[in-house]
């Protein structure tokens, strides 16, 4: 392989994150050594100030007076402090609340009196170019600062350490001229969008009285603002926008921004399905659904998609970011991040209250997760369900969490759609220039309750008295445009009338509308499909690889570049690996996995693995990344392979966010094997919302297939209750309608085949694997070279290591995972030649048909036992019990039921005492094999036998 330097990070990927060198170094974290207000520093330079005063005196025909210079310097210093305070705190005096309920006194440090200028409005001061002035009167300076920082837009940005970012924002917000400027045509377009938003909600309320719609009423300024993102984003190179949002305003966005036909939404309101009748699926409520479409502004077409979401607040956020990252990779846009834009629309209470928001903000600058900046739009209703802001957060604004990643925040009054649209335009420009997150906090109100059936005056009577007397956004804006001469008296009414006529036509058309196709196997998913049935679709997929590729991968996985100083222990690992390829035996779990990854990459697929310790592996088993021991350069052997792309990332210490991100990535790219690995399987608990709401049910709810793989270390080895169980039972409880696959695999070769099968079939299903811990290096859990080649494939059922003729088997012990080796070892030591141990490698979809064939051949079978390490109320028992009985019945063994051998029921997954664990493990193995009664476990077994006789 040689010493090809291009295989070292960061050249491998998108130039993100730390540069080569010590792992603790991240220059992006260091604030530049520069003044926070460079123009202010320059203006206060003594030489500059003296020259300015001298020039001014010269123009006036007077000599420069030292006292005048001293006074001018004092004035300038106070003027500069005034500018500085407005930049930092001006937003506190901004006109943000449409209802006027948020009473905020102007801070004293934002007054002229505080700065010693009281009554001196006509005095000229030198500010050296700040805000576009050299010399300016105090009064003019003060009015300009108030107009820039205390109008309908309040900007928070002085927490940003980067000087250029601050200067960029200052240049667009500061100056004596009006900053928010749109043409008359643009203003009419903004008014038209607001009217469509309002009239649409009014129409729905009239036609579907009392039906929940979670309307946008009061926040309609968001509609023209989102359209501005499309228009100005397109001008800057954006060709795809991926949206995520919760309920409020979703139907309005679907119709008036995404362009989903009104008749389709009306059809769904009337109880119709979003998909053809023959597609199946459970469906979901209309305000959870997504869509995709194309819109054009100025002859630039932008593809847009709104990701479907559950009711769990903000759960869709990481999914959107993962999908955006995948689309950037597909478009070869990972260096500039120009073409694909993620936009997340939040509620104020959720943005402040949901931890997943911070997890997603934390992705913004991390290699492998960065999307080049996400635009966050907060619909700030100033209330969360029935909870007022003072009880919903401990900070002044719901957006304060974003300061943790130095994102600028634009607070804006939702009654001024022009200002909101300006904020979105500025956000697009900032994101394009710096590739960083930015937040728009639109202060508005919720005209009705949490949903249209709620009575909000139960809890906020004063607020809703104000709201009911408050004019609509369109009325306020139309009045202003009439005053400016932009529209006449009849314009707004004519727009309303024309739009309502169109809505009536669409409403009539909805009565005969029928969906003719399902939107799920297009684009990059073309050629994939839904499997005809779970049983036959999984048979005999050709997953073996040829000898030439096998040998080539062996060389890639064991050759060390000449200039790489690897750890001495890694050297021994690589030597052992080399011996495997030379001898053809002893292949362990990590090598089998690397062979699966490498073979898929060689065949043109992408492979993406992330998790908290995925590069090395939690158990020091993987070593996908080799670190130079002298300078910490990173070398990844699998990235040297041609055709596909291999990525492995040590993720942030997040489960909920990272798993959601990977789900979103897999949603967009079915041609990449996307895997999330938990450090220990029980860490999946922290991502349970993603598992329940997306992974297990996303396909049946939203017709969104997904091939994400979960790697969850699982196994009872006396390490206590926390890291023994990946909660296998929870995944099995979620299994139905062929939704996911659950495996507990015992051989490296079978693991190799299941990973390859995941990509080589014509469909995608999430795959949950209970991965091993001790089996990673177990002497019996090895495979031979032949098991990866020839006619081999994934085995849903694995036979006993010891060959026992089927007709000789008296007792069949079924199990899955690590306990199989304990059983086989104890059986062999006891000399039992009529007890067979058969491993169920794939628990769901359950391999009932091949199991029945096997049982039918066991003509002398007397007992079937299910053995597991987990407590009886955990693990597989309650899932497989009846399925095994069904297989026995299909084999002609009516009345034969499996017996349980395992731990008793327990509230905790495992004991915390190694000695107790050992006794329990020996007992359950002994009972399963019929070697002893095993005390309490035996009584459990006898109870099962009594049930059989009864």
Summarize the structure in words.
The chain is of the alpha/beta class. It has four domains: 38-173, no CATH class; 184-516, 3-Layer(aba) Sandwich (Rossmann fold); 544-716 and 723-788, Rossmann fold; 798-949, Rossmann fold. 38% of the residues lie in helices and 13% in strands. It is built from 30 helices and 24 strands. Strands 3-9-10-8-7-4-6-5 form an eight-stranded mixed beta sheet. A seven-stranded mixed beta sheet has the order 14-11-15-16-18-17-22, with helices on both faces. A hairpin with a 2-residue loop joins strand 5 (291-297) and strand 6. Mean pLDDT is 89; it is low at 1-19 and 935-950. Residues 1-28 are annotated as: Disordered. Its EC number is 1.2.4.2. It is an enzyme of class 1 (oxidoreductase). Keywords: Glycolysis, Oxidoreductase, Thiamine pyrophosphate.
Determine the CATH superfamily of the largest domain: Thiamin diphosphate (ThDP)-binding fold, Pyr/PP domains
Ranges where pLDDT stays below 50 over 5 or more residues in a row are 1-19, 935-950
Strand order of the largest sheet: 3-9-10-8-7-4-6-5
Structural class from helices and strands? alpha/beta
- Number of DSSP strands? 24
Radius of gyration: 33 Å
> What is the overall pLDDT average?
89
Number of structurally distinct domains: 4
What global shape is seen? elongated
GO biological process, one term: glycolytic process
Pfam families: E1_dh (PF00676), OxoGdeHyase_C (PF16870), Transket_pyr (PF02779)
Keywords: Glycolysis, Oxidoreductase, Thiamine pyrophosphate
EC number: 1.2.4.2
């Amino acid at each position: 392989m040689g010493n090809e330097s291009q295989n070292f990070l960061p050249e491998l990927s998108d130039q993100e994150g730390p540069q080569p060198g010590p792992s603790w170094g991240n220059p992006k974290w260091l604030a530049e050594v520069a003044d926070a207000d460079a123009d202010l520093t320059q203006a206060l330079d003594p030489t500059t100030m003296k020259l300015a005063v001298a020039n001014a005196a010269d123009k006036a025909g007077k000599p420069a007076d030292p006292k005048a210079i001293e006074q001018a310097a004092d004035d300038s210093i106070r003027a500069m402090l005034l500018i500085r305070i407005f930049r930092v705190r001006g937003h506190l005096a901004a006109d943000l609340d449409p209802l006027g309920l948020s009473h905020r006194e102007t801070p004293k440090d934002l007054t002229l009196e505080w700065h010693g200028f009281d009554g001196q409005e006509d005095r000229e001061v030198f500010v050296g170019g700040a805000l576009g002035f050299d010399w300016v009167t105090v009064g003019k300076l003060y009015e300009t600062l108030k107009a820039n920082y205390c109008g309908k837009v309040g900007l928070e940005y002085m927490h940003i350490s980067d000087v250029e970012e601050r200067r960029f924002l200052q240049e667009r917000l500061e100056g004596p001229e009006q900053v928010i400027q749109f043409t008359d045509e643009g203003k009419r377009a903004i008014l038209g969008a607001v009217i469509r938003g309002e009239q649409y909600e009014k129409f729905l309320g009239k036609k579907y009285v009392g039906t929940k719609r979670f309307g946008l009423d009061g926040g309609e300024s968001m509609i023209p603002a989102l359209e501005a993102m499309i228009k100005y984003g397109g001008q800057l190179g954006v060709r795809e926008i991926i949206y995520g949002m919760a309920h409020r305003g979703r139907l309005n966005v679907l119709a008036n921004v995404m362009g989903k036909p009104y008749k389709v939404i009306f059809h769904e309101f009337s109880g119709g399905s979003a998909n053809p009748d023959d597609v199946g699926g459970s469906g979901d409520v209309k305000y959870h659904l997504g869509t995709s479409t194309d819109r054009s502004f100025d002859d630039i077409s932008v593809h847009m998609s709104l990701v479907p979401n559950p009711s769990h607040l903000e759960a869709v956020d990481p999914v959107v970011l993962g999908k955006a990252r995948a689309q950037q990779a597909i478009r070869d846009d990972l260096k500039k991040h120009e073409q694909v834009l993620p936009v997340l629309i939040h509620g104020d209470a959720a943005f402040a209250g949901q931890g997943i928001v911070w997890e997603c903000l934390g992705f913004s600058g991390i290699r492998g997760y960065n999307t080049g900046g996400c635009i966050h739009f907060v619909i700030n209703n100033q209330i969360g369900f029935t909870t007022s802001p003072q009880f919903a957060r401990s900070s002044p604004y719901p957006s304060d969490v974003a300061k943790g990643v130095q994102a600028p925040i634009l607070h804006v009054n939702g009654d001024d759609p022009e200002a909101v649209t300006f904020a979105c335009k500025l956000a697009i420009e900032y994101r394009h220039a710096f590739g960083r997150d930015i937040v728009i906090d639109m202060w508005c109100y919720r005209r009705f309750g949490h949903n249209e059936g709620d009575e909000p005056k139960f809890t906020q009577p004063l607020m809703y008295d104000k709201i009911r007397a408050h004019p609509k956004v369109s009325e306020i804006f139309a009045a202003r445009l009439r005053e400016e001469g932009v529209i006449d008296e009849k314009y707004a009414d004519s727009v309303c009338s024309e739009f309502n006529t169109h809505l009536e036509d669409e409403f009539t058309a909805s009565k005969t509308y029928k969906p003719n196709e399902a939107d799920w196997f297009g684009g990059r998913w073309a050629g994939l499909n839904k499997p005809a049935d779970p049983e036959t679709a999984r048979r005999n997929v050709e997953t073996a690889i040829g000898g030439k590729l096998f040998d080539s991968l062996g060389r890639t996985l064991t050759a060390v570049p000449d200039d790489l100083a690897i750890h001495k222990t890694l050297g021994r690992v690589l030597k052992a690996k080399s011996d495997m390829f030379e001898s053809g035996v002893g292949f362990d779990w990590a090598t089998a996995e690397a062979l699966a990854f490498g073979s898929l990459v060689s065949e043109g697929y992408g492979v993406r693995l992330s998790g908290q310790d995925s590069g090395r592996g939690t158990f020091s088993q993987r070593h996908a990344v080799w670190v130079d021991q002298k300078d910490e350069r990173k070398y990844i052997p699998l990235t040297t392979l041609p055709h596909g792309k291999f990525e492995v990332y040590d993720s942030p210490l997040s489960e909920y966010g990272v798993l959601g991100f990977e789900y979103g990535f897999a949603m967009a790219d079915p041609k990449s094997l996307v895997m999330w690995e938990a450090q220990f399987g029980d860490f999946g608990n922290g991502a349970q919302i993603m598992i329940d709401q997306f992974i297990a049910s996303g396909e049946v709810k939203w017709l969104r297939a997904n091939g994400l793989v979960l790697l969850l270390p699982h196994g009872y080895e006396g390490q206590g209750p926390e890291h023994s169980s990946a909660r296998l039972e929870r995944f099995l409880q979620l299994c139905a309608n062929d939704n996911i696959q659950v495996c507990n695999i015992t051989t490296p070769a079978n693991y190799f085949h299941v990973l390859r099968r995941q990509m080589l079939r014509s469909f995608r299903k999430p795959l949950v694997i209970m991965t091993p811990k001790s089996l990673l290096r177990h002497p019996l859990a090895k495979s031979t070279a032949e098991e990866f080649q020839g006619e081999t494939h994934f085995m849903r059922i694995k036979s006993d290591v010891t060959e026992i003729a089927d007709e000789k088997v008296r007792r069949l012990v079924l199990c899955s995972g690590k306990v199989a080796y304990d059983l086989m070892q104890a059986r062999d030591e006891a000399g039992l030649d009529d007890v067979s141990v058969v491993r169920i490698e794939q628990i769901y979809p359950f391999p009932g048909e091949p199991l029945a064939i096997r049982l039918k051949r066991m003509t002398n079978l007397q007992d079937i036992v299910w053995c597991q390490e987990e407590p009886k109320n955990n693990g597989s028992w309650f899932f497989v019990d009846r399925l095994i009985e069904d297989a026995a019945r299909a084999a002609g063994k009516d009345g034969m039921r499996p017996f349980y051998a395992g731990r008793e029921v327990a509230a905790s997954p495992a004991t915390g005492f190694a000695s107790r664990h050992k006794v329990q493990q020996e007992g359950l193995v002994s009972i399963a094999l019929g070697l002893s009664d095993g005390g309490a476990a035996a009584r459990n077994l006898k109870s099962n036998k009594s049930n059989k006789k009864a």
